[in-house]
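Posting for a labmate who doesn't have an account.
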Amino acid sequence: MNVLVLTTSYPPDGGSFVAEAVEAARARGIDVDVVSPSSFRHFGIAGGHGIVANLRARPWLVALLPLFLWNFRRAAARHDADLLHAHWLVSGVVAATLRRPYVVQPWGTDVALLGRLPWRFPHVIAASRFLAEAMGAATVVPTAVRIPERVVETDDGTILFAGRLSPEKGIEEFLAASEGLPRTIVGGGPVDVPEGLGPVADVAPYYERAAVVAVPSRREGYGMVAREAMAHGRAVVASAVGGLRDAIDDGVDGLLVPPRDVAALRAALERLLGDPELRARLGAAARAKAEREWSREAMADALVRAYHEAV
């Protein structure tokens, strides 16, 4: 099978999860080509922080959208493929004009936009059950997380917050709930956190040192940080929202708390910090789930099934 991936974000300018899917498919013997912003002139509309953010920053680029789409389509039409895999709705619009079988995989705000379109794509892929339900009907293909070869058994007794420092990620609730507790904060964003370490190239060493990882998002389509922490065998406390509810079975492989509930978050953090045996039990179950459900092999199996169904 020959698959052509259409994407508006791809390494080195983002889209690492798209690249993971490409490599997973190739590992299953599928011939995959990629059309990304590096393949055609995009006028600065793609790349960076995404199309929507780029247009907000430079509204005059809206006038170039038709030419952007034309260049994108022309670059895609040069390739022969049995199937198109379009990441984001813009790529899906391009794929729909090429008269070949295709699947569309929305991300982020595209999930909400999908329901407002006057038509429906025939085959949709979602990374979590929550996203699949939000889009009405979709095949679930989990985004893989890197599974470390071993779990570091010791920790430094701290709570880790990793990710974007923004209200929707729950950083304000985290700061309030963890006040006075040992904590480490990595990531960047609009919320100023003087003690934060800023963005880091590799979060893995921080997962390895943490006793507990907090993911108190107000909304979350997938929850990559929670899944990465679970792959490292860490006990995770997360909000019971979106894709985080898919990731964690409360009390089995992590703890769930109501979103925006500072008191509940504080209680869960203190409970885990004070109970090493509970941390170890939840962490071991979390690691087993990650190996079973979010490895590259699991993603590749689901992706190949989705490709064959679409063709």
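Reply:
Got it, the structure tokens are right above this. The chain has a mean pLDDT of 93.
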